[in-house]
Each structure stands twice: as structure tokens, then as C-alpha cells.
Specification:
Layout (H helix, E strand, L loop, with lengths): L14 H6 L33 H4 L3 E5 L8 H16 L2 E5 L5 E2 L2 E2 L13 E4 L5 H9 L4 E4 L9 H17 L2 E3 L19 E6 L6 H5 L7 E6 L8 H9 L4 E8 L5 H13 L4 E5 L4 H11 L6 H10 L3 E3 L2 H13 L7 E6 L2 H13 L9 H7 L13 E2 L9 H10 L4 E8 L6 H14 L4 E6 L7 H7 L5 E4 L2 H20 L13 H9 L5 E2 L1 H10 L7 E4 L2 H11 L3 E6 L12 E5 L2 H18 L5 E6 L5 E10 L3 E8 L3 H4 L3 E4 L5 H9 L5 H4 L9 H18 L3 E11 L6 E3 L2 E5 L1
Parallel strand pairs: 1-2, 1-5, 5-6, 6-7, 8-9, 8-10, 10-11, 11-12, 13-14, 13-15, 15-16, 16-17
Antiparallel strand pairs: 3-4, 18-28, 19-22, 20-21, 20-22, 23-24, 23-26, 24-25, 26-27, 26-28
Helix pairs in contact: 4-5, 7-8, 11-17, 14-15, 15-16, 18-19, 20-21
């Protein structure tokens, strides 16, 4: 795990309370209607609200409804824990129970209305919180926590109960955490640790336990939000709040399902604008994982490819394991911004250095060769027969004396080096002890990141427990993989935030002239014919081939003469999706007789198959280019999503596609192309000319505009193939399918 800082201990029991409850960001009003200036062209919010959660995490007064001191009752242990927590933070706690006069010696009120003051927070230790909500609203309680289970996580009946609870909370004006949550927000946080902290958000409390336990090795934790079923307060609310907290260096999340994709992206956008890293484990990559997550929290998990793309689009760092969540969030919380992206691997073993370097390079880290001058400098202290280009092998003996520190300082002094990683596969005292101390001392004198991988499975060695974990400047890991994952995330995050521009700031707020044209072409509840779908594309300025829709063989011949031979002929009908498989496409027709015969054959097949046609398309034949697909689909969580990938039959065989959630700009459209395995095809292969990438990007952006403006009315759009012509010649939509909702 990462190293720590113990700093100066304090005897003030309210220190952590004061630090966590400093000046608050401006609150957003719960339930307040957004103005037109706050909405994009599709009527969705452009900004994330920031709930004023100061009084949730640091209430001055708390009511515990259903408090108990009866032996053997579950509420008794919870009540005792809350009383201890309130005493540590100086919070006034009021037990509430209709039949008890006191709880653990503290006077007990029969109801919230009978309390001597208006409380900030009500903790509901009742099986059904719904009847209590109205009473809390009448008493002007700001926040409530519902521990009760049996809601959306249990199925349809529980989901209905949760919907009733959510509606009551919305009417009340208070904010609710839960139901199906726990006491994690009221844990005992260490108040003796300094530096930037991790704020933790989990939907399963137990899954946050490893991150919370990192306090015991010196990693500071400021907050823990156990969101449970998220009937009201959700992960996005806490991300928005934590992104504004000055003490928060990184936000660590364990997410089973997102309540609302748009809210999550707005919150991630806020964090990205402020440079606060968000690291997340998001379960549901597989069908089994998604099913289990839904049964636990009762929320949609979303198509994982869309979730993954959306997180990447807004800089959320997705990791797979809780160990990765710990190490990556701790590194990102505490490390300074990199001065360079070059990584140098330094070890006392050539084999160790080579092994780590292979893994790091494969993961995408850049390991630049050190300059000849720098290598000559290092050879002052390292024998000439050892490699010092990168990785740097010192042979072992130099770390035992004054030369060890000289080597480390020389590497860190190189302007190309931003990260120094030293894998120590096992303790080898005194050599490993001296190396660890030199690395710690050097790290104190530099702004560059120094990482150590302590590979011993024991973990009780003095060099590890005291020297490395006692350092606030050295990032210490236990495995190669976690170190590489965290360092890659660290470099990626700072590269991302340096160039990040919020897409919501430039999102269109008024419909374009194209929208009015397109709206007239939409047919609610219907699939458009190819001809109608192409008219939709034309409305948004997307180029289609020269073509005419005809209803007779004679008209087809005249159309072919106008379009220009050779031509393609295709049946066109409202519910006709896969024309090629039915023999409803004829390619390369070069004469009037071929066109007449093709028309008769196409209409005969359609008649035999019982397919209603609106005519036959006679199209310009476009041959030379790269076939791509660009489309729009509706995601349950995020709404319209835009896809680009290799087109033709390859989209079904290779599934080489990239996805983004609108709004996004040109840089993200280009990033989509860079994610494709088939990207080299656009650069020209085997003598083919480079494709017109600029035209392809323009089509993607126009399709995005269409997705934003038409919104839910456009259930699906599929441009396949989009023929991307040689550079400077544009792109042509050869076929299109559109489904209206």
C-alpha cells in the first residue's frame, strides 16, 4: 500500500470535525426548477447541483428515531455507536422513542416535534421510514438516514415502496441517505493525519472497508458516504460536494449501479474542471456481475461499454479491484503534478528492472532512454558493464554506501524524468534498508514522484513499516501491477485535466435550423425507409450519394441516366433493415437493360416476401474509400449515445467501435477514432490513400447534434456504411436506418 504521513499529533478531539466542516461551497436548492439558461437544447441540465452536505457530515444536532438500550436489540448497538460518534464531535444527540423515557441515561423524547431544538440530522432506526418523513418535514429537519432494507434491492414490490419513499422525500424538501445503508458515515476517522485526503463513496459498505483501513498505514480519509439504494442522495451528489472540498485530494468510489447517468456525468465534469481525480470500481462488466449488482441495489447497471466510455470521456479512472482502488486513489490524492512523463526504473537487479520495464512498457508507460551524458554521469558510481540507459541497474553494491544517494539524485535531476520507480522484490538488509532510506530522503528534496514496490509478502520489515510507510513523499506498493496501474492513472489524469474543457459549457441551448427540417421528417413509432432516413441526414448537412426514388422500370432507367452509370439499385421500405440478405440490392449496373431487369427483380422479391415498398432507389455508385459506421442509440442511463467504428459487415464481426455520450467536441471525436483497432485503415494501408479523417469527424459531430436535438424521439440511427473517401474528398452515407420513438 502507499506510504503515509503521520505529521504532528493533536489532542483536540474536534480537529477532524473542524477540518471536514470548513467553509462550504454555495448550496444548490433541493427541488428548485432550473431556468432555460441552465438547460441544453434537449432540455437537460447543463450544471450539477451541489447539495449543502456540511450539516449532514458535521451536524450540530442529531435525532436518533427508534433509539434503544434494550439488550439484544440491533438498534441498541447502533444507538451506542452514534452516541460515541456524537460525543467525539461535540454533536448534541437526542434519542427519540414513543415509549422510552431515557436511553443510556439520556432523556428520550416521544417524537421529533417534542425535541428542544430543530435538528440537522435524523437517523431512522425504524423498519418503515415512510411514515416518519412528513413528521421530519414539519420539524424542518435538513437530512435523514434510513437504514431499513427491503426496498428496490428485493424486487418489484420493494421498488414500488422505494418509489413512494422517494416521492415523499421530494415533497418534504429534506435530503435522504438510503434506504438500505449503514453507519459508515459515522465511523471514527483518524484526526492526526495531514495532507490531502481521500473521500470515499460506496454503495456496499463492506467494499469500502479496505480504503477506510488505509488510515492505519497513514493515508488520510476525510469522509465516507454509504449511498445504499439512493432513493434521494446519490453518488453524483457526493462527487459534486467532495470536488469542492479543499481537503479532498481524490474521490474513491465503489459503484454497483448509477441512479442517473446524466447526473453522474455532470458531477464528473465538475470534478474534472477542478482537477480532482475520481477513481471508481464499477461492477457489472459481465452479465453475472450486472445481475448481482441489480439485486443488491435495485438500480440499472447500464450497458458496460457505454459506462466505460462515459467514465473515460469525463476522466473518471476505472479500476477493477479494491486493492487498485486503494493504491490509485491514495497516489492521486497525494502526489504533485508531474513535471515530465518519462518513467525510469531503477533496481539493484538487472532481472528485476527488465521484468518491471516489460510490464510498464506494455501498459503504455513511456520509459525514455537516458541521454549519453546522463549515462556517463551514472557510470561514475555504477560499473561500466551494467546497463544504465533505462532501466538502470546498479549491480547492488553502490546502494550500500554514499554512491546510492548520488545515483538517485542524478536520475531525478534529468528533465525527461517525471517518475522514478524502484522495485525491491524482497528484503536484503542492510542493502534494501539503505536503499529505502535513500529513496525517502531523495523524495523529500524533489517534486517528482518516487515509487517503491516492496515485494515481500511479510510486510513487517522495518524498512517497509517505518521507513517507507513513514514517508509522505514516497508512494509504496506491494505489487508490480498496482504500481503500474496507479502511475499510469496519475499521468493520464494530469494529462487529461490539463487539456480538459467542459463540454457542457459549449452545449447547444437552442435548436438549429436543421432540427426544424428533421422534425418534419420524423414518424413517431416508425422505422423510416432508407430514402426517408437519408433525407434526415441531408437535413443535418450529411452528404449522401446522388439518387432518385422511382416507382417504375422506365423511371429507373431515366434516373440512372441522370445519376450516371454505374449505379446501385436498392429496394426502399419503412420496415426494411437487412436488404442485402434478401437480395434487395443490385450493384454495378451499367446499362438500361440491366436497370430494367433489376427493377423487376427487386419488386418481385419484395412482393414474394410480403414487403411493402415506397419505391426503388437508383443511387450513384461510390467505390473507393474506407467503410465506417456512425450511429445513435438510446442508453437506459445516459440517453442518446454516439458510436463510430469499422463499417460494412466488419461492425458485426469485429465489433470495433467507440462510444461517447453527447455533448462532446472535436477532440473527443478524434479520441474515438484513436480507440479503434482498425484506425490504421484511415491512414492508408497497402497502397491505399489516406482517408478524409476531417470529414469523418465532421459527420460524427453532426450526428451528435442530431442526437442532442432529437433526443428521445430518435430511438436509433445507423449510417452503415459511411464511405470515407480519400483525403480532401469528404464522406458519403451510402445507407442509413432510422427508428423514431
Amino acid at each position: 500500500m502507499l506510504g503515509s504521513t503521520y505529521g504532528t499529533f493533536t489532542t483536540d478531539p474536534r480537529r477532524a470535525h473542524v477540518v471536514a466542516c470548513g467553509e462550504a461551497p454555495a448550496p444548490a436548492v433541493h427541488g428548485q426548477a432550473a431556468t432555460a439558461d441552465d438547460l441544453d437544447v434537449s432540455g437537460r441540465p447543463l450544471h450539477a447541483g451541489i447539495p449543502d452536505l456540511d450539516r449532514f457530515f458535521c451536524p450540530e444536532s442529531v435525532a436518533v428515531i427508534g433509539a434503544s438500550d434494550a439488550e439484544g436489540r440491533p438498534n441498541t448497538g447502533i444507538t451506542r455507536q452514534l452516541m460515541d460518534w456524537a460525543e467525539r464531535g461535540g454533536t448534541r444527540l437526542y434519542p427519540v422513542h414513543p415509549t422510552r423515557r431515557s436511553v443510556f441515561g439520556t432523556p428520550c423524547s416521544p417524537s421529533v416535534a417534542d425535541l428542544p431544538e430543530q435538528v440537522d440530522l435524523a437517523v431512522l432506526l425504524v423498519s418503515d421510514p415512510l411514515p416518519v418523513i412528513e413528521e421530519l418535514a414539519d420539524s424542518k429537519v435538513k437530512f435523514a438516514v434510513a437504514f431499513a432494507s427491503g426496498f428496490a434491492e428485493t424486487g418489484a414490490e420493494g421498488a414500488a415502496a422505494q418509489a413512494r419513499l422517494a416521492a415523499a422525500v421530494e415533497r418534504s424538501g429534506l435530503r435522504l441517505l438510503g434506504p438500505n445503508t449503514n453507519l459508515n458515515a459515522f465511523e471514527k476517522f483518524r484526526d492526526d493525519l495531514e495532507g490531502p485526503a481521500i473521500a470515499l463513496i460506496t454503495q456496499s459498505g463492506h467494499q469500502g472497508r479496505p480504503v477506510f483501513t488505509m488510515q492505519e498505514i497513514g493515508v488520510r480519509l476525510s469522509h465516507w458516504a454509504p449511498t445504499g439504494n439512493e432513493a434521494d442522495l446519490e453518488t453524483a451528489d457526493f462527487i459534486s460536494y467532495f470536488a469542492e472540498r479543499p481537503e479532498v485530494g481524490a474521490i474513491a468510489c465503489y459503484v454497483e449501479g448509477l441512479k442517473d447517468g446524466r447526473s453522474f456525468l455532470l458531477a464528473a465534469d465538475r470534478a474534472a474542471q477542478r482537477g480532482v481525480p475520481v477513481v471508481a470500481v464499477k461492477v457489472g462488466r459481465t452479465e453475472t456481475g450486472a445481475r448481482m449488482a441489480a439485486s443488491h441495489t435495485g438500480k440499472l447497471t447500464g450497458a458496460d461499454t457505454v459506462v466505460d466510455a462515459a467514465m473515460r470521456q469525463y476522466g473518471v479512472i476505472r479500476v477493477d479491484g479494491l486493492d487498485e482502488l486503494q493504491d490509485t486513489s491514495a497516489l492521486l490524492a497525494r502526489a504533485r503534478a508531474p513535471q515530465a512523463e518519462g518513467v525510469v526504473v531503477y533496481s539493484i537487479s538487472g532481472g528485476t528492472g527488465a521484468h518491471f520495464s516489460d510490464l510498464a512498457t506494455e501498459a503504455g508507460l513511456r520509459l525514455p532512454a537516458l541521454s549519453e551524458a546522463k549515462q556517463a554521469e551514472l557510470h561514475q558510481w555504477i560499473p561500466d558493464y551494467l546497463n544504465v540507459a533505462n532501466p538502470v541497474d546498479n549491480g547492488g553494491h553502490p546502494v550500500g554506501d554514499w554512491r546510492g544517494r548520488k545515483i538517485i539524485d542524478a536520475i531525478l535531476d534529468d528533465p525527461e524524468v517525471g517518475v522514478l520507480i524502484c522495485p525491491i522484490t524482497g528484503p536484503f538488509p542492510p542493502m534494501s534498508d539503505k536503499l529505502a532510506q535513500d529513496l525517502v530522503d531523495a523524495a523529500e528534496q524533489t517534486d517528482k514522484l518516487v515509487c517503491v514496490v516492496w515485494g515481500s509478502p511479510v510486510g513487517t520489515e522495518e524498512a517497509y513499516r517505518t521507513t517507507l510507510l513513514g514517508s509522505s513523499r514516497v508512494a509504496t506498493f506491494r505489487t508490480f501491477a498496482n504500481c503500474i496501474t496507479a502511475v499510469r492513472a496519475y499521468l493520464d489524469h494530469h494529462r487529461f485535466t490539463t487539456r480538459y474543457r467542459s463540454p457542457f459549457a459549449e452545449a447547444p441551448r437552442t435548436p438549429s435550423p436543421s432540427f426544424r427540417k428533421a422534425q418534419a421528417l420524423m414518424r413517431p413509432g416508425q422505422q423510416l425507409s432508407e430514402h426517408a432516413a437519408k433525407q434526415l441526414l441531408r437535413a443535418y448537412g450529411i452528404r449522401v450519394p446522388r439518387e432518385q426514388l422511382v416507382t417504375s422500370a422506365a423511371a429507373a432507367v431515366r434516373a440512372a441516366g441522370l445519376v450516371g452509370y454505374p449505379v446501385v439499385m436498392k429496394a426502399s421500405g419503412a420496415r426494411l433493415a437487412h436488404k442485402t440478405e434478401l437480395g434487395l440490392v443490385k450493384v454495378g449496373l451499367t446499362s438500361a437493360s440491366q436497370v430494367r431487369d433489376a427493377y423487376r427483380e427487386l419488386t418481385d422479391i419484395a412482393r414474394y416476401e410480403g414487403i411493402a415498398l415506397d419505391g426503388v432507389l437508383v443511387c450513384q455508385m461510390v467505390e473507393r474509400g474506407v467503410e465506417m459506421v456512425v450511429g445513435v442509440t438510446q442508453d437506459e442511463l445516459f440517453g442518446p449515445t454516439v458510436t463510430v467504428g469499422l463499417g460494412g459487415v466488419l461492425v458485426e464481426v469485429l465489433r470495433d467501435v467507440a462510444v461517447r455520450v453527447p455533448p462532446f467536441g472535436e477532440s473527443q471525436a478524434l479520441a474515438m477514432l484513436s480507440e479503434l483497432r482498425g484506425r490504421p485503415l484511415l491512414d492508408g494501408v497497402r497502397g491505399a490513400p489516406p482517408a478524409d479523417v476531417d470529414a469523418l469527424v465532421e459527420v460524427v459531430l453532426r450526428v451528435q447534434r442530431m442526437a442532442l436535438e432529437l433526443g428521445d424521439d430518435l430511438a436509433e440511427l445507423d449510417i452503415n456504411p459511411l464511405m470515407v473517401l480519400p483525403r480532401g474528398q469528404g464522406a458519403v452515407a451510402l445507407d442509413a436506418l432510422a427508428v423514431c420513438r
